[in-house]
Amino acid sequence: MDNKIVIALGGNAIQTDDGSADAQRKAIRSTMQALKPLFDTDADIVISHGNGPQIGTMLIQQAKADSPQTPAMPLDVCGSMTQGMIGFWIETEVNRVLAEIKSPRRAGTVITRVEVDEHDPRMSNPTKPIGPFYTKEEAEQLQQANPESTYKEDAGRGYRKVVPSPLPVSILEHQLISTLVENQNIIIACGGGGIPVIKRNDTYEGVEAVIDKDFASERLAQLIDANTLMILTNVEHVYINYNEPNQEALTNVDVATLKQYAKDGKFAEGSMLPKIEAAIDFVESGEGRRAIITNLDNAYEAFKGHVGTQIEH
């Protein structure tokens, strides 16, 4: 198996407290500089990323400006727009690094559609909050105007629209991505978990949903026959009993042990648990596959197997 890696960037690799375009570009520049040693290897590389803050900002902007002259776009379209925007910033900075190291490689972005199953039980149980906050009265008015939408109270801060978060079935562009990356291009794909689509007749149509970035990255890694899935987050290791007196860092761990820890509730839902589940799925999907969970600063050393949480069969 070729040395092929999917790197799933956490939101902190892109977003800062300052949500301006300039601040985000600077954050991405810093992130790509940190990944420079990886770009200087012979590994085939795909980069995926989140888009939560960016699409949230876009939805808020649209809610404030919605009018016949500036109509709001549906969620799948907003997803494609943020994929293109963030992909542009990332490929610009990757190409900057490649020029610095005098590499003949080039980077590019593939706007990625991710197939989901319309019968996935998660499709009928919307849980993912998106967009602006509303008062109860505003939410009720919006609900009446669009009965298919769902609004829920969010942690005492107001009401927000919630959408489903189905599991990815397939990555429609995976063959294109595989061809590009095997020709030594560094490809940015599955941005924000990809654009969720369902098959209808002979084509695919976008649906209002959000796919977890780590699950989409894992599915892509399987489909392009990668041997490493690296999930970058804000901690050097996965921990059990996190922030407790008996906190313990996991370094080299097998899938069976990790499954037991997950069963015992050792990982926070909505935080570390999806990363653990994605890592387990990937390692179990084929021989010789490993998953790594670590932070950006340790990405290269983790790729070499020296640090981070290394998960193997």
From TrEMBL:
Transmembrane segments: none annotated. CDD domains: AAK_CK. GO terms for molecular function: ATP binding; carbamate kinase activity. Pathway: Metabolic intermediate metabolism; carbamoyl phosphate degradation; CO(2) and NH(3) from carbamoyl phosphate: step 1/1. InterPro entries: AceGlu_kinase-like_sf (IPR036393), Asp/Glu/Uridylate_kinase (IPR001048), Carb_kinase (IPR003964). Residues 3-295 form the Aspartate/glutamate/uridylate kinase domain. It is found in: Cytoplasm. GO terms for cellular component: cytosol. Its main location: cytoplasm. Keywords: Arginine metabolism, ATP-binding, Cytoplasm, Kinase, Nucleotide-binding, Transferase. One of its GO terms (biological process) is L-arginine deiminase pathway. It catalyses: hydrogencarbonate + NH4(+) + ATP = carbamoyl phosphate + ADP + H2O + H(+). Belongs to the carbamate kinase family. This is Carbamate kinase. It comes from Staphylococcus warneri.
